[in-house]
Design goal:
The chain is of the alpha+beta class and 619 residues long. The chain is built from 22 helices and 14 strands. 47% of the residues lie in helices and 10% in strands. Helix 4 runs parallel beside helix 7 (197-211) and helix 18 packs antiparallel against helix 22 (566-592).
Length: 619
């Protein structure tokens, strides 16, 4: 545990009269009336100045307990004090346009106690049935049983998803309907008190059943990262539970501060030794992330407020640091293994970073979870999906090398490096043409009247750009290309890709494509009326910046003509492009013989190849 929160209770108790102060305002030392000394001791606890409340408002000190999780709260104390507080709370809610639903409230009282008029009409229940966010938190045992049953339900759902015949659809459902998303409300309710590792194991098992991929520790750590960081977006519940619970504690502050006065959450929770909050705050999984602990401390000390975005802000920070730690551990482990030495080791370490960076590029992973509104053909077959996931996670695609079936001379290595570099067989040309046709189709829908593979230059007919059109008086020529950032023959591409997403595509565009048309355009009568744009994408889906700019303009043009938002058009456009890259690369690898399906398990028809849900190692 970091030093900042090692003594959370002692730190909370350092707030003098914490229950009397309105800590929603900046924590400037209060000034006693007439003293003129900002460091003077606080005014008497019973005064309205100390409470930060209007005259006559109920002091929180009259209650023994007052905690809230978002809009779900619990208050406890003497019945008369509790009744006065509830009436004051309802008045404040009415003043801001809210109404307390007494039908959803529950009251737990001692046997034989007389319920005051202010609490009449509220249903009574035993203390161990009191709930927060739908979870019975009045009894640790009941809470444990409830969460365990909910976790079993989530696991049953994942088993059903894994049994679906369409692997790509099953993976999409796993991401958006099961696993992390199905229990996030439980994590927000109970935090690190409950161990959610079982759900993570079920998610990992479900992924293995869907794709036939048994992930090791490094591959699963990468898979649990967000898609935008190169992972699969299958977030770890165990690693996120503490943050979810802490964020839930603060997310209702903006509204509750006007309803509960004085509002001292979470200090009241620390002073009341709230086990779930303290367990989350002291979760050892947060200990390595000082930047996250600092952000949490800012909220605790009322120096910052994320307006209901705490979980997103803190999770983003944790994911970024986890990815950095994962990259470091993967490269260090490769060095310790002793399999590679010297320049070969250095290159392999760069290639690991290049792969993950390229997968993090804008729109590079649009293919991963499909699009329910898109063409039903834009879903990968089980065989293609298994290959694409293995390449993304850096897992071998075959148990041993073999002779490439495309060129007949090269070695189809277990990592698919040769297959993605091999130009034989015409499959790279098919992928190139598929990308070209998608771009031309969207340009046509935007009324740009694109010409495909037509001579457009006045001084030569030999150069025929992939696509050309006139936009705002400028003749735009587009040249589509796909490059492999990990090719051993040009290690500079891997170094550029490791620096930033799309680095290899940018290097290829600069070195090869930009000079291709420069001399031709300079010899045109009006060179300023021409624009050559290389549309270069790497085999992981990352585009060069110039390509992203031009493609977005094409998408916006199509959106204007089709009466839809530019955002929706871009999403559809880049999903189709990303799919063509992922499918094209997977088919090349399969055709090269680098990945051989096990026909004995879940055979499915794909083209002329009988593929399978399960790839090596076969089970």
């Amino acid at each position: 545990m970091g030093e900042k929160f090692k003594h959370a209770r002692e730190w909370a108790k350092s707030f003098e009269n914490a229950r009397e102060w309105d800590l929603t305002t900046p924590p400037v030392p209060a000034q006693a009336p007439g003293s003129g000394d900002p460091a003077a001791s606080p005014p008497p606890a019973g005064s309205s100045a100390a409470r930060g409340a209007p005259e006559g408002a109920l002091s929180q000190a009259e209650l023994d307990l007052l905690t809230f999780f978002l809009d779900d709260g619990a208050a406890g104390g003497e019945l008369d004090s509790l009744g006065r507080w509830l009436r004051d709370f309802e008045d404040r809610a009415t003043a801001v346009g809210l109404r307390l639903n007494r039908g959803k409230c529950r009251l737990s009282v001692a046997p034989g106690a007389t319920i005051p008029e202010a609490l009449q009409g509220i249903e009574t229940c035993p203390l161990d049935e009191i709930q927060h966010l739908g979870v019975p938190c009045g009894s640790p045992e009941k809470m444990r049983v409830f969460v365990e049953e909910a976790a079993k339900g989530a696991e049953r759902k994942m088993r059903m998803i894994a049994s679906l015949p369409d692997a790509h659809v099953a993976l999409t459902l796993l991401k958006f309907c099961a696993g992390f998303v199905s229990v996030v409300h439980l994590m927000r309710a109970v935090g690190a008190v409950f161990d959610f590792a079982g759900i993570d194991q079920a998610t990992q098992s479900c992924l293995a059943t869907i794709t036939g991929i048994e992930t090791d520790a490094s591959a699963w750590a990468l898979a649990s990262l967000p898609v935008r960081l190169g992972g699969l977006g299958l977030h770890s519940c165990a690693d996120t539970a503490a943050i979810a619970h802490i964020a839930a504690t603060f997310d209702g502050e903006a509204c509750l501060s006007s309803l509960v006065t004085p509002y001292v959450l979470p200090h009241a929770m620390l002073l009341n030794e709230d086990d779930t909050f303290l367990a989350s705050l002291e979760d050892p999984r947060l200990a390595p992330f000082d930047s996250v602990l600092e952000k949490i401390q800012d909220v605790l000390q009322a120096r910052d407020n994320y307006g209901g975005r705490g979980q997103k802000v803190w999770s983003t920070t944790v994911h970024g640091e986890r990815r950095k730690a994962l990259l470091d551990s993967m490269t260090e482990e490769l060095g310790r293994s002793g399999q590679l030495q010297g320049p070969a080791l250095a290159l392999k370490q760069v290639q690991i970073r290049a792969r993950i960076q390229s997968c993090s590029g804008q729109h590079a992973s649009a293919w991963l979870y499909g699009n329910a509104e898109a063409d039903p053909r834009l879903w990968l077959s089980p065989a293609e999906l298994a290959v694409a996931i293995r390449l993304r996670l850096g897992l071998p695609i075959a148990p041993m090398p073999s002779i490439c079936r495309l060129c007949g001379t090269g070695s189809a290595d277990v990592d698919g490096v040769h297959a993605r570099s091999c130009f034989s067989g015409g499959r790279r040309t098919r992928m190139h043409n598929a990308l070209r046709d998608v771009i031309a189709d969207f340009a046509r829908r935007g009324l740009l009247a694109p010409a495909v593979e037509r001579p457009v230059f006045s001084n030569t007919e030999r150069k025929r750009p992939d696509i050309s059109y006139v936009r705002d008086g400028t003749t735009v020529v587009l040249d589509v290309a796909v490059t492999f950032p990990l090719q051993p023959s040009n290690p500079q591409y891997a170094k550029r890709a490791a620096e930033k997403p799309g680095g290899a595509a940018t290097a290829y565009a600069t070195a090869v494509k930009e000079g291709k048309y420069r001399g031709i355009i300079d010899n045109e009568p009006n060179p300023r009326e021409w624009l050559a744009v290389p549309l270069v994408v790497d085999t992981f889906g990352a585009w060069c910046p110039g390509a992203l700019t031009e493609l977005r303009q094409i998408a916006r043009k199509s959106a204007l003509r089709e009466d839809r938002t530019a955002s929706a058009a871009c999403q559809d456009f880049f999903h189709q492009l990303s799919f063509q890259v992922a499918q094209g690369v997977a088919r090349i690898v399969i055709a090269s013989g680098g990945a051989r399906p096990d026909e004995a398990v879940h055979p499915v028809a794909w083209g002329s190849v009988t593929a399978s849900r399960v790839f090596l190692p076969a089970r």
